[in-house]
Design brief:
The chain has 10 helices and 10 strands. The chain is α/β, with parallel strands linked by helices.
């Protein structure tokens, strides 16, 4: 278990977090991490190590699993996200999640991009169009779809669908973007395009990502945490984790000798 000294500027802070599923499986054990503003923080490790569970805790999607148990503290901008006065709808707009499988909504590209904004009460077409274009540009998709906004979102390629899902989240102006293996089904060109977008997006947002592979983690991470069996084995910057890991299990996993 790794504990980092808490920084006053932390965007998200986890302190002694445990999480147990209804069947008694302890998915996370004594997790303590601080994630800073405008960094691309990677959570990596083998299957069933707790990566997705950890992401779901950060915007309370874990609430949807009835009978689970959570202990510890998670703070967003210094406030307890599990406090009784937390507005969960507001929280999920500020800490937005994009899943591994692209999930466009039925309808046009325009419908996809404006649905969340309209649900948030926005009706002014000028504002809707401005926010839509800005988000599509941020996701490096505008030039590819600007002339077919009235076409079905399902007609997009896999990579375009995933960038549309990222743009849809960005339109709501979150502060944190959670990405759960967003390039798992993408070809190398689409993967490279999305990775380039992330390097630009982190200037405005805090990004927490579960990568497709160790190699991807090493390419994109500012800092990274290696999870194993629900515990943080090691956490550090890109150079430490991928070139000079301090823990033998991290070394084994990064070098492919994990067993």
């Amino acid at each position: 278990m790794v504990t980092l000294g808490k920084a006053m500027t932390s965007k998200l802070s986890l302190e002694n977090v445990f999480y147990t599923y209804p069947d008694g499986t302890e998915a996370l054990s004594n997790i303590s991490l601080d994630i800073q503003p405008n960094e691309l923080f990677v959570i990596f490790g083998p299957s069933r190590s707790g990566k997705t569970t950890l992401l779901r805790l950060l915007n309370r999607l874990s609430d949807l699993t009835e009978g689970s148990e959570r202990q510890g503290k998670i703070q967003f901008n210094g406030e307890d996200i599990y406090g009784r006065n937390t507005d969960i709808i507001w929280l999920r707009r500020k800490i937005s999640m994009v899943f591994a499988i692209p999930t466009p909504l039925p309808g046009t590209i325009y419908d996809n991009m404006t649905y969340g904004l309209k649900m948030a009460g926005m009706r002014d077409d000028n504002i809707l169009n401005t926010r839509m274009e800005q988000a599509l540009r941020q996701a490096a998709l505008w030039d590819e779809v600007k002339d077919r906004l009235d076409k079905s979102a399902f007609a997009l390629s896999g990579g375009q669908k995933q960038r549309l899902c990222v743009a849809r989240s960005l339109a709501l102006e979150p502060e944190v973007l959670l990405l759960d293996n967003p390039t798992s089904g993408l070809d190398p060109i689409s993967t490279a395009t999305l990775e380039q977008s992330l390097n630009t997006l982190k200037k405005q947002y805090t990004i927490i990502m579960v990568p497709h592979s160790v190699q991807q983690a090493a390419r994109i991470a500012d800092r990274a945490a290696f999870l194993l069996d629900g515990e943080v084995i090691e956490c550090g910057d890109q150079n430490q984790i991928f070139l000079h890991p301090q823990h033998v299990r991290t070394t084994d996993y990064v070098t492919g000798r994990f067993g």
